[in-house]
Amino acid sequence: xxxxxxxxxxxxxxxxxxxxxxxxxxxxxxxxxxxxxxxxxxxxxxxxxxxxxxxxxxxxxxxxxxxxxxxxxxxxxxxxxxxxxxxxxxxxxxxxxxxxxxxxxxxxxxxxxxxxxxxxxxxxxxxxxxxxxxxxxxxxxxxxxxxxxxxxxxxxxxxxxxxxxxxxxxxxxxxxxxxxxxxxxxxxxxxxxxxxxxxxxxxxxxxxxxxxxxxxxxxxxxxxxxxxxxxxxxxxxxxxxxxxxxxxxxxxxxxxxxxxxxxxxxxxxxxxxxxxxxxxxxxxxxxxxxxxxxxxxxxxxxxxxxxxxxxxxxxxxxxxxxxxxxxxxxxxxxxxxxxxxxxxxxxxxxxxxxxxxxxxxxxxxxxxxxxxxxxxxxxxxxxxxxxxxxxxxxxxxxxxxxxxxxxxxxxxxxxxxxxxxxxxxxxxxxxxxxxxxxxxxxxxxxxxxxxxxxxxxxxxxxxxxxxxxxxxxxxxxxxxxxxxxxxxxxxxxxxxxxxxxxxxxxxxxxxxxxxxxxxxxxxxxxxxxxxxxxxxxxxxxxxxxxxxxxxxxxxxxxxxxxxxxxxxxxxxxxxxxxxxxxxxxxxxxxxxxxxxxxxxxxxxxxxxxxxxxxxxxxxxxxxxxxxxxxxxxxxxxxxxxxxxxxxxxxxxxxxxxxxxxxxxxxxxxxxxxxxxxxxxxxxxxxxxxxxxxxxxxxxxxxxxxxxxxxxxxxxxxxxxxxxxxxxxxxxxxxxxxxxxxxxxxx
Length: 746
Prior knowledge:
single chain, alpha+beta, Hypothetical protein af1432, Beta Polymerase, domain 2, 5 domains, 5-stranded mixed β-sheet, 4-stranded mixed β-sheet, 22 strands, 16% strand, globular
């Protein structure tokens, strides 16, 4: 007897179910219930998007619904934000206007929807190329109402969760800008769980094979990890129960992306990442005692069970992070000599860690009127005063301000100040006041005299020394690392350059008049060529500074041109080829355009003709790569994790193409492998035998250092692709004295 199959659910029922789930999430919150307003926004959005489908095939309204659910459930915002999330694509994709939204839902929701509409067509859209104004818009809307960026992050999170339906080139673009802007932005706003998921999803789409490899290794290790965790947490559970606390214990597993980052930055294999597991204690504080004191009490109880690592205690209770994060972290020695980090948080601290800014405001009391987060939001407005003309430079400056880790330093009077990790004495001067920075001649750190570029450490006491005669110098840009200092200095130098440019233009015009020539385009172009400038402004600035000999103008116009053919060709631009060779690339005709919807095949024959390899990251066949189509329609190939590629994905997304390695066994590339092992007689001979005899690989050069019976060697070898390197590493590790072998990726 055949079973009766349930009828497939209709689209309308599917939409209604998702809306009911949204209302259910909303009812569970402490927000004032405005079901009627949310229902009105849902019905309006549903009608506006009627008949429109997403690329995945589902009705479009499912996307705003999903974003609204993230907004309420994962970020913790209320009805205004839920309505704005439901309506966030209405103005962008339909005939309705912001005025229509304002008439129906009031000015606040309209303002947020307007902000979301502006940035959706701005820095992250197809036309964003290099327009700093679009990025500036994002910051303006963020500083006007932070809910705009919180909803935008929720929108991006849902797009990342459904990115599988997009073609590869789109995936790289969206994953790239997510990694470059959205994940760090979520981190700065305290949305740690969302930040982790965005990083993980970006990594999954950019490096699918590596992601799966690490995921599989985590799965293999899972049973042993769970057994260890149960054994480790049992005495902690018993002790906290004995103390009478209401608490939860949670295992925190390091994300795949974080594991990969540690492996690549420290050049270690998966097996040497020891902090995969951490313990999180979330407790309900008792009355009559401060949360801070209770955290230290729990710390005392835990270190009574396990021995703490003296250098790995992190106190973010006394001085919270700039994004509001509070917790007490201690690393203790568990069973079998394994170090485990324990994070101690109250329920309030955990809410702030999970939901960031929304929870931060929810718990805000009158004690500290201005938190570090509020101060940071003020600095956003400062950056908007004089943005960099180039969008990429502007984003870099903004990122400096946005995503640096913090350290805490003291003024001479003992006042505590937060500043970015890696900041110098000069950075600190500019943090206090621009004039203090402009006249800074040095500093005293812990009562000792230090130079302007001295890097500060947490806990330093710093006093700035000034002189009225001191003025900023161009090399100061190399002495600072914070966005505030860089912006102030660049603005100052821009003003100076403008003055020099006006003076220089006047000098060149006078010099041309002297030799009876007009200062028109026809006469300025030869001067630009002669002094090797591409921009008039550069020419005028240098003339204003007095670095050019303007008496030479007569030679340009009244001496015969003696440049021969060889010189002419030497001046032609050259583009990097492969290995140690340089190849001249023939220009590509305008007709020979790259089809950006198709995957570009990287063959030996086309190397240097239709594509070249990026000098910045030097990819080789087998690496995860993407392509960037330059102005001459040539494809520049970059590793997907390359820093230059990250900027290109964020600012020139429409130029990103999917590329695929074809068989490569002709071209050779220099790559570096690092080998560590026991310094024993004959071990080098064994290594060289495997490299040259076993694989016929040529060695370019090698550096070997020994210390206390151990050695570290870097071998520069010629290979065809990643398969060559992987096979080589597998066979070198078989030598008994060798402890680790890996490819060094710059």
